Amino acid sequence: MPREISLSEVQSLVGQEVGLSNWITVDQTMIDAFAGATDDHQFIHVDPVRAAETPFGGTIAHGFLTLSLLSAMNYDCLPKIREQQMGINYGFEKVRFLSPVKCGKRVRGHFVLTEARFRGAGMMMTNYDVSIEIEGERKPALTAIWMTIIQFDPKDRPEGV
């Protein structure tokens, strides 16, 4: 996938995997920082001794931490759209947390563009089927449909759309 594309090329990518991110290690420092930011200090995330007694055998990442990594994964692997002025999160559908991410594991994101449609003079709505793979695991950590808006100057809108 090219590192940069034009707005007129986006719709031709529908149905394709448009990004595969680099691996990110989810360590205890990251988990603890997320716990502090969200005030979610459940022992399964922040207490390695107590978490070792659970079926997980140690701490696991918050599901919302795993979901939030999609932003970094997006910046890492999706092609930049030359005309884009700003990207906006519109939301998620069908978020499913399928497997816990154990502390120390590496994860990476897969992005399949499923829809790209112009909306108004200076916006394009995009939908991605996203999944976060856990290295060495059969099931992904999560799957979701991620909806975003690409904002651009209306003068850059391709003709005929």
From TrEMBL:
SUPFAM superfamilies in the cross-refs: Thioesterase/thiol ester dehydrase-isomerase
Domain of life (superkingdom): Bacteria
Pfam families: MaoC_dehydratas
Domain MaoC-like, residue spans: 10-117
Alphabetical list of PANTHER family matching this protein: MAOC-LIKE DEHYDRATASE DOMAIN-CONTAINING PROTEIN (PTHR42993:SF1)
Protein name as it appears in the record: MaoC family dehydratase
UniProt source species: Rhizobium terricola
